[in-house]
Amino acid sequence: MESKIHPTAIVDPRAVLAEGVEVGPYAIIDGNVEIGRDCLIGPHCRITGWTTIGARNRFESHCSIGAPPQDLKYADEPTRLFIGDGNTFREFVTIHRGTPGGGGITRIGQASLFMAYAHVAHDCQVGSKTIFANAATLAGHVEVGDFATVGAFSAVHQFCRVGEHAFLGGFTAANKDCLPYMNTTGNRPAKCYGPNAIGLKRKGFSEDSRTALRRLWRLLHNPKTTTTQALERARAELAGQPEVDIVLEFIASSHRGIILA
Fold it and tell me: What CATH number does the domain containing 128 carry?
């Protein structure tokens, strides 16, 4: 099926549109853009920069995708934005391409939902099947794991990480790494409240997995031990549990520190 382009849309002839792409009224698609099959580009969207988009993505009205990074050092270098398949970007979502100093690539995985006004800054690496609620915001160089949820009006500081299956509550201000599988909520300071019990159960995690994560949390949150002592005990008592091992590796590889309490 051929692409369907509204008469008021402006599509640079150098842009590459696969079969089945639909471009709505007053949308603008610039010349270094590649769009996969069966994508919907809604009214007033602008897709620019060196941007590659996979199949079956949906961009509602007024999205700005692939714009230059908000970095004073950026000098119009040909940095990139890659978007996988099957994502939904609601109204006024903004996604910026990378910077030379940050690896040059902003990357979005597959099957994620970005609600209205969500923002992903330069050089972020976002996994698959994530949810960004309204106005959720990532600063530059942030990593977000698969299945993570970033709540409404939350902000993640540059160079921080959000672990897989993590849940950030609304209005959270995260200035350190947010643990996988855990519920992190709060504004200056954010606090970790332990495993996201309801979310993990809904996602089909076994009782054994949820119990192991609760045991890990009790060790990490014990006021009578240091974090180092808690980690040593967790490795001795819980190593081999897949989700626990992921959390322990996440902590060990942290550069900014982790949010606990």
Answer: 2.160.10.10
